[in-house]
Design a protein that fits this description.
single chain, 303 residues, mainly alpha, two-stranded parallel sheet, 14 helices, globular, transmembrane helix, FA_desaturase_dom, Fatty acid desaturase domain-containing protein, transmembrane, membrane
Length: 303
């Protein structure tokens, strides 16, 4: 079946969401009262997730049918996260290969793993620190791109945080291209501060709210799902407004089955036999900490 890429629609949504996100950053930075900062941060947490969802489309090369437009948009959208487009693409495609394997199993702990450490990782995810690691890693790449090729970094911090497979994948990427994309993201953030006279407090309020919102979804759509690389995801029930702003990101099982299908078609790919969990039922269970992994070997990563 043919699934045309809605390139013009995606561009319009990207420009609109970026405009609202920038307005929220400005309001949060210049608000006379804390309530306005709070409102701006909450709105930003959703519109910046719209930009992330479009960035996710670009990572799968379904943001725009023109490959050059797709990748340029991906680089710019990455700057709003902020992250580096190539790093996000490599990491996300790695996620599709390793999903629910022993290398990527955040909600369960294996016999040789610490329940306390895995629960700590879950709480980092739920409280926004999982998001914060990504901009820090992007900045590290700009400052010291060879760190990702370092055995010390791979076997030390990356292993301890559970990101070693991703770091090893990123280490194979051409440094010049990835570094240049990182510079673009850094310059975009600097431009936002200079042009719109942002305050660090207002910026942090918006981005931490975004980090909380983004992180809440990132493993709720996998936690407790079957240990299968493709079938190990959920199609979650979202509030209608959230579903629209996240661009159908909640239909995650449909996406894992057909990762090259644009977001507008995902509802049609949901099967009548698929589980129909609400987002809240999975999300709230994560706060109870890591669970013991089911007995038996997990799936092997896809080639």
């Amino acid at each position: 079946m043919n699934y045309p890429i809605p390139g013009h629609r995606n561009l319009l949504i990207a420009v609109s969401a970026a405009a609202v996100s920038i307005a929220c950053l400005w309001v949060a930075s210049h608000a006379a009262h804390g309530w306005w900062m709070l409102v701006a941060a909450v709105v930003f947490s959703y519109t910046n997730n719209t930009l992330f969802s479009l960035h996710h489309e670009a990572a799968h090369r379904v943001f725009h049918p023109n490959p050059r437009v797709n990748d340029v948009a991906g680089v710019l959208l990455a700057g709003f996260f902020p992250t580096i487009f190539s790093i996000q693409r490599i990491s996300h495609l790695g996620h599709h290969r390793r999903n629910r394997t022993d290398e990527e199993l955040y909600d369960y702990y294996l016999p040789h793993q610490s329940w306390l450490l895995k629960t700590y990782w879950i709480y980092c995810l739920l409280t926004g620190f999982y998001w914060a690691i990504i901009p820090v890693a992007a900045l590290l790449y700009v400052i010291w791109p060879w760190a990702f090729q370092s055995k010390w970094f791979q076997d030390g911090p990356a292993r301890w945080w559970g990101f070693r497979p991703f770091v090893c994948d990123i280490a194979q990427a051409p440094i010049a291209r990835v570094w240049l994309e990182g510079v673009v993201s850094l310059l975009l953030q600097i431009a936002l501060f200079v042009v719109f006279d942002l305050s660090f407090v207002g910026w942090l309020a918006c981005y931490w709210a975004f980090g909380l919102n983004w992180s809440s979804v990132q493993y709720s759509d996998h936690a407790g799902s079957p240990r299968d690389v493709i079938e190990g995801a959920w199609n979650l029930r979202f509030w209608p407004v959230a579903r629209w702003l996240f661009l159908n990101y909640n239909f995650h099982l449909a996406h894992h089955r057909e990762p090259s299908v644009p977001w507008i078609y995902l509802p049609k790919l949901v099967r009548s036999t698929d589980a129909n969990h609400s987002f809240w039922s999975i999300y709230l269970r994560l706060w109870l900490g890591a669970r013991k992994a089911p007995i038996g070997p997990g799936p092997s990563p896809l080639p």
